[in-house]
Amino acid sequence: MNQILDAYKPIWSLKHAISLMGWDFETYMPRKGTEERGLADSQLHILHKDLLLNKNFIDLVELSKKLESLSDLEKGIIRVLDRQITKQTKIPKDLTEVESLLRIRGNMAWREAREKSNFKMYAPHLEKMIEIQKQIAAKLGYDKHPYNALLDNFEEQLTVDDLDKIFGTLTPRIQKILKKLQDSNSPFCKEHKFVKTNYDIKRVSDLNHDILTLMQYDLNRFRMDISTHPFTESMGLNDIRITTRYEGFDFKKSIFGTIHEAGHALYDLQCDQSLSFTPIEGGSSLALHESQSRFWENIVGRSLPFVRLISPLIRNQVNFANQTTDDELYLYFNNVKADHIRVDADEVTYNLHIAIRYEVEKKIFGDELNISEIPEYWNDRMEQLLGVRPTKDSEGMLQDTHWSSGLFGYFPTYTLGNLISAIIDSKMRKDMESYNEDIMKGNLNPIREWLRLKIHQYGSAYAPKVLLDKSLNEGYNPDYFLTYLENKYLGI
Ligand SMILES: [Zn+2]
Fold first, then answer.
1. What does DSSP say about strands 232-234 and 240-244: parallel, antiparallel, or unpaired?
2. Which residues neighbour ligand 1 (ion) by CB within 5 Å?
3. pLDDT digit string (tens) for 434-479?
């Protein structure tokens, strides 16, 4: 095993450099550096693939697969490497190159098309990208549905069967909750004036740092910067960075964006240090990662005890909120509104957006939907599920960047993350009697420790389904999330 980890060091170092370059690209790189960075990035990726597929390295991994009495962590290292090698071997180099070219061009075309809300400008690029993804799915191989090959790229062993079952339960019950809220003219549905109130960016930035201090983030291993699209990037286990953004109005977006990314960061910050420099440092899957960010953002962050905890900080930094009550802040943070844009969606309607993307992607790869039919189909489904019809494509299928970068199969992990966050909440409450009181007092250590022991410490040693079963005794079960919504919003 030591031999493998030694041989892995140059691969780890390349990943470290690629991550740092990615972070820099989104934060401080001068705009004209794009082409140089693009070349450097693609060359490093090729080098990464070459190192991974080096015959000596593959032999080492093959040999270790036959070893007996391996620990769970060692098995995890082999599983992760074997998965990467198998996938990289199946996809020929020229396909990878075409894909990365299409990514750059497609992304540029998508940006312009979205700005002008002109689907036709983007359609030829989308068509090529889908064609390439179909070829990739064929090369990777799959059971039953081609989309399964792509789903597995983002969430190990996730299938169409899993998702059909999940959304089959989730979608109608969320629709019911939404309808009840709307019909009863619930206070959750009243839009607060803060949504349109401008704020002082410096003060809200200070507020974000106050909240992170309260959550005890160690600034020797962690930092926060600003970017257009907030994200978390880990260079390793001791250099983890998040970003946030300041739109200048509706201050809740900035603080909950910050808490969301901080939740991602905590996963990596609490991985066991013995996993440093190994292929299993960092989270088990995208869904598990999203469960951590959503847990802190929604389940803890938007709860009344947490509102009570941070409301003095808010009143101190946000001058127009200095007379606002905790209950009023709570309603502002939890406003429910069926609308067009996924990233702005509340926790009730959010997964309906994902249900539509899932349906569309499944149909695309099942050859049931042509490119030209997507906008109409999308808008129809928005109207049926959310009751709002996009009037332009920038409010509809052009709103997200994922497809332009070839990320088909990614969206469902957002919903899985939400489902897991509610499972965690339910299990944690059973283990911790003073859960609410602890949050209200700012004693977040028991929660952090619970997450560390059950999830964070293992990194990606276990495949997501295995970890869920082992630590939470559950699968991607939607019932917990639905019960959580019904309790919170309907008081059931
Ligand atoms: Zn996230």
1. antiparallel
2. 293
3. 999 999 999 999 999 999 999 999 999 999 999 999 999 999 999 9
Q: What is the value of pTM for the model shown?
A: 0.96
Of the chain, the end-to-end C-alpha distance in Å amounts to 53
Active-site choice (156, 233, 261, 297): 261
Across the strands, what pairs with 225? 243
Question: Distance between CA atoms of 321 and 317, rounded to whole angstroms?
Answer: 9
The single residue listed with the structure tokens 């990606």 is: 460
Residue with tokens 């901080």, as numbered in its chain: 262
Long-range contacts from 101-106, C-beta under 8 angstroms, 24+ separation: 102/128, 102/129, 102/132, 102/406, 103/129, 103/404, 103/405, 103/406, 104/38, 106/403, 106/404, 106/405, 106/406
Per the CB < 8 A criterion, the answer to whether 397 and 360 are in contact is yes
Split at pLDDT 50, 70, 90, the class of 416 is very high
Express each pLDDT in 159-213 by its tens digit. 999 999 999 999 999 999 999 999 999 999 999 999 999 999 999 999 999 999 9
The answer, yes or no, to whether residue 492 has pLDDT greater than 80, is no
- Compute, in angstroms, the gap from residue 278 CA to the centroid of ligand 1: 23
Compute the distance from residue 231 Cα to the ligand 1 centre, in Å. Answer: 7
Based on the residue annotation, tell me whether 68 is a catalytic residue of this protein: no
From ligand 1's centre to the CA of 448, what distance in Å?
18
pLDDT per residue as tens digits for the range 278-302? 999 999 999 999 999 999 999 999 9
Q: How far is the CA of 293 from the centre of ligand 1 (A)?
A: 6
**Could you tell me if 1 and 77 are in contact, meaning their C-beta atoms sit under 8 angstroms apart?**
yes
In the reported structure, the alpha carbon of residue 416 is separated from the centroid of ligand 1 by a whole-number distance in angstroms of 12
Ligand 1 centre to CA of 93 (Å) is: 30
